[in-house]
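pinned: reference chain
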Amino acid sequence: MKWAVVLLGLVALSECITKVPLIKGKSMRQALMEKGLLEEFLQKYPSDPAAKYSLYSSASNLPMYNYMDIEYVAVISIGTPPQSFKVLPDTGSANLWVPSIYCNSYACSNHQKFNPGQSSTFRSLNTPVSIAYGTGSMTGFLGYDTVNIGSIIDTNQMFGLSETEPGSFLYYSPFDGIMGLAYPSISASQSTPVFDNMMNEGLVPQDLFSIYLTRGGAQGSVVTFGGFDSAYYTGQINWIPVTRQGYWQISIQNVMVNGQVVACAQGCQGIVDSGTSLIAGPQSDITIIQQQIGATMTSNSQYSINCQNMGNMPEVVFTINGIQYTLPPSAYVRQLNGACSSGFQSMNLGGLWILGDVFIREYFAIFDRGNNMVGLAQAI
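pinned: its structure tokens
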């Protein structure tokens, strides 16, 4: 939601989030080894990336809480002894940061604050850090400490401690901080991102992670570090080259409605971004899509939809690397308290599109740093 319009009335989720269990079971590799079938399997599937990646036993699942299909929030801990924080796993940024006891901003008043004086393993860098998002920002300084993410214990992770969080956006957010999962080239103050540190320290069996997002506020959303689970998708994984190693940026060939190209006609660039609620694009293109799906602008510049029309609304299709990714009305229409609104949003990002949670809910996403690819498959 960091790029989206602020939704007032967000409530604290600490009771719900902290009760989400860690999910970790026996891997395929372990099961095959126990039955003496591992060597035969590897000989049969030597070049199948899905088969290869699903074998590793030390991939770690980090559960996420689905907040009304708006944001997906996970719990991690920092320090010794651990101090727990709710964070937004965000493939659209690259810094890990949480509020600190030095923050007196309104936004920090109702969130957990890290106290470095209570951690025996904290080391301050005294390096300033400043991060601005589409909505919300922070300033503070960098430090090192032990960070627990799922079953992974990262004993030397750089992170930001906020001292200011201007405005009210972060006050209403159900998360304390943000865990960026993009490339280090966009990291503020050259801070090492969480997943880069996992790779550098050999904490993951494969240099990739995957994201599964549930629908309708259901539990079961997860980030898997070091692998992916075939239980979260159906059909084939399609691998798409990353075109620029900053965001998880890929090429989009076009956007179609009713078989006609209505946007991105000459091709465009997009990013797969778990930290953004909606699908965003250039205003001219998004305006056409809103017209095609029958969305009308309201007095607060939002696009509303008549819920009774959903059965007659068209599919919106993104063509990516020769594959068509279809979004039915059930995917792009947001339903809340009996009202319906569009899951598309205009935003001036120099022609860049954002494939946010509306897209990722439909298409299980794998972020492969080892090969600089994004894998997409139909989510269950």
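why pinned: Residues 3-32, 44-57 have pLDDT under 50 and may be disordered. The chain has two domains: 14-225, 232-379.
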